[in-house]
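Practice problem: predict the structure.
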Amino acid sequence: MDLADIGTLKSLLRRHGFRLSRSLGQNFIVDPAVCPRMAALCGAGKTSGALEIGPGVGVLTRELAARAAKVVAVELDRGLEPVLAETLAGLPNVKTVWGDVLKIDLAALLREEFAGMSVYVCANLPYYITSPVILRFLEERLPVSALTVMVQKEAAQRLCAGPGTRSCGAVSAAVRYYSEPEVLFPVPRSCFFPVPKVDSAVIRLKVREKPPAEVPDKRAFFRVVRAAFGQRRKTAANSISAGLALPKADVAAALRQAGASPAARAEQLTFGQLARLSVLLDSEKEEQK
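Answer:
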């Protein structure tokens, strides 16, 4: 069964009486090159596991099953149950878990399903849960080696943006704190059924063992990051001063000590400068108490 063929896909969905849900962001891949490429680049192999989120009709699932020792696919829409029962039949290394990836106990799931294995996340993520899903895996330090996910093109640029670029923001800093992000390849809107209004891209986030710069207090670091990017039109000095309720002169002095100009904007600060700044400003807050 060629699930990337639009005629086959429509026939499959019609046969099982399945109706697409806009609220769940259901757009199925109908380009035969996309899923094999994602599965090949995600890192999963014969001794590792693959966790998929939102398998849809199982196109990517089948590619992962051909490469990984075990595949667990988490799906919210029970309407896809008969569809997946057909498309994943005969694949003993695949298990479907029904539930909301933002609510289920992922730590327990990973522990129970992939004991002793390294795990790679690979998924075509619905646009509306992109950042929450990615940040949940990263912030909760869930035991996965990498996340290879398809997201909206603009989200890909934002998530993988490096310091000094206009796309860099608070979420970029958070992603870079926990992982090494890279954009792998673009996926035009024409690769989906139904055709969405935006293009997509596949990104890979290799989970780090430690941050790219020393951060003694993670909470203090992210307070500074949120404040710095809180008012993008202002300089970092003004934005941080307002966000942390600190005198602008003290923030400007801390920026100089961190090796940055007080006139710089948040996206111009390097990760190391933000880390150093968080230490300096945390000390400043302590002195004010």
